[in-house]
Every structure is written in structure tokens, then in C-alpha cells.
Design a protein that fits this description.
D-Maltodextrin-Binding Protein, domain 2; 19 helices; alpha/beta; three-stranded antiparallel β-sheet; six-stranded mixed β-sheet; 11 strands; single chain
Amino acid sequence: MAQSQRYRRLAPIALLGAAGIALAGCGAPGAPEGGGDGGNEDVSGETVTIYGTIVDGEAELLQESWADFEEETGIEIKYEGSQDFEAQLGTRAQGGNPPDIAIFPQPGLLADFASRDFLKPAPEEVQQNANEYWTEDWVNYGTVGDTFYGAPLMASVKGWIWYSPTKFDEWGVEVPQTLEELNTLTADIQAKSGSAPWCAGFESGVATGWPGTDWIEDYVLRQAGTDVYDQWAAGEVPFTDPQIKQAFDSVGELLLNPDYVNAGFGDVRSINSTAFGDVAPAIASGECALTHQASFLSGFFPEGTNVAEDGDVWAFILPGESAGETTVTGGGEIVGAFSDSAATQQVLAYLSSPEWANSRVSLGGVTSANNGLDPANAQDPILQETIKILQDEATTFRFDASDLMPSAVGAGTFWKGMVSWVNGDSTDEVLTQIETGWPSS
């Protein structure tokens, strides 16, 4: 999902404020009012338009994924992808010319459009699919107030630590089971190799800094827990809170230590000038021992790289404070509709089904949290592992916090703050500056 993730970061959300994100917290919602079921109507010859952030090669795969459905139903699906998704969708919705369906890259953006009465409640069949095939956490991300508006589509798991199994064997080190063991592993590799173990890249054009926010989010979730994480994402726990500072301090022990970074690229400050995908070849060659990135990094390794537990490259999920914890951050899309036509409802039902999930995942490059998905359909072994994590009932999933925050923070002061932090500004100064991005009301 490398491309769509990158485009997603280049089109940050603009919310009305944290109060606009109202996620139900106590189970799946009841049937939405007015959410009909168009599954029994003859809709052959009708057209359904879909708008999203997915472009280029991924857009072609998306269209291929529903080709059989189009042939079976006679519905023509017209997809349009744009890097200017948010602004254009708002203009079209306000002008009375929205698409039938939008693929929202963040729950908060869907909540914003729902709060302004642009979206239709999800049809009953979509709700049934969501309740059956997704966890409560995912159902809540498509819920605003007490109304369910949209089912998830694709998903990614962040917090993977990529490494070379061959190098681990050479150094006589093992995959850590706790954060403390990760720090010990870092020191051991540095001592045995004589070079910096970590490489990191925060550069991503106008979105430079976002990989750093993923680091912080992973540590906040693991060290402070889900309640603090949720409150932080909603602005109820400020960046200046000691629990958030603890996450920065812990990440800083690795990323701000010149003995530990930036293997193969330069000093600590070179993190900001290194493109996030450029670290992949350094891991594959063994020049860099460790890097932190989402499952989509697998798409950046040189052709011929064997990504396997005993191959050139493999990955483990960033551990927690205690061994065996299964709490992860990630991203994904939520599908919402501006139309309640019978054809639109049938398309929505299909996109929320295991049939679509298996169709798209089998084409490569993506994963889904749909528990009706067969992990074997994922061609990439890390994506297979990602699916297993997403489907595991013991997994606690939290959406990327910066994508839940107002864009002035999540895609603004937070990104910029990470750059300033790497450049040498003090943690206290950076946290205070990031906090100023929150809307005053």
C-alpha cells in the first residue's frame, strides 16, 4: 500500500474539530434509519461513481477487483482517484454534485461529512457485514454518534521493525519481546557491528515528518495504554502531558542517539532528508540493521529481495512493555455514500463483503481487516502476517492518531514538530509548539 499511503499523507484532512469525531464505544450500532437494501432490485445498466485517494497502478487494481461484480450485476462502476481528494470532495458535496460513494482515508473525514448531513446511513446489508466480519473497533470508526455510515475497506498495520535474519544470526541476537529488550538489542548490535543499528527516513515532500509521528503513536499506545491514546487523539490529553513526553523520550533514546542512527545515510539530522522508502534497500543489503515502518515498506525492497523469516528481510511488530502484548496502530479506508440508490447499495454491500476483500487482496499489495479474508490470498508474506494480526480477536487496534486529529495538528504542527525535534529542538519546546495547532474551540 505504499503509493496510496503516500498520497493519503499528501492530502491531509480538514476537520471541524475534535468534537466532530464521535465514535460509538459500546458495540455495533443498531439498524440505521432509512438504510434500505437494494440487493433484490434489478440494477443492470446503472452506473455508480466512486471517488477516492487511490491513484495510478493501485487504482487499476481496484477497478480490476470489482470487474466480476460488474459483469454479474450489470452495474458499471466508474472510479476516479485524486491527490486533491478532500478539497474536491467538499466542493462537489456543497455544490450538490458528489459521487455516489467516497472512499475516505481517515475516519475523521467521514465524520466531518456525516456531521454536515452529506452522507447516507449505511444500508442494512453493509451493517450486517460490518458486524460479522470486522471487530468492534473497526465498526466504531465508521460510526458517528449512534449512526453507522460506512464499513472499512482496506487496512494496514504499522509498527513493523524490519531487519535482516542473516545479520541477526551473524551477530547472535534474537527478536526482542519487550521494549526494554529492543533497547538492549540496539546496544548489542552497535557493539558487535561497530556501526549505527537504525536507519530512518522522514522525508516525504510536503508531508515530511509523518514517519516520525508513527513512531510516537506506537510508543504512546504501548506505554500509556488505549485510554490515554484515545484521549490524546481527541485533544483531551495534551502533547505536553508527561505520558506523551515519555513516548518522545523513549523514541529519542534510539533516533536522537548519534551512535544508533542513521546507518548508511549520515548523522541524526539526515533522517529529515532521507526519503522514507529509501531505507528499504539498506535493510536488504545489511548496511542498516533495523528500521521502523508499516507493512507497505515491503513494496520498496529491490527486485529479487526474499522477504521471509529465513530470507533477506523479515519484520517483527514493535513489542510492548510486557511480552505477548497485541496492541497495534494502523490505517485504512472507510466507505461512505452520498446516494442511497439501489445500485449504490449493492456496490456498498459488495465492498463490505469477504468476496471483495479476497478479490482485491489476491491482486497484491494490500490487506484488509475483514475476517472473512483468507490470508493465503496475500502474495507477500508480511501482508499475510498483517492479515493474521488484524483478524486476531486478541489484537487491540487503534487508528493512526495523527489521522484522527484535526489537520492543523495531525498533518501540521505534529509533522513539523518531528522535523524540528530531529533538527535539535528540545522536546519540551517541540511539544509546546505542536500543541498550539489545536483549534481553540
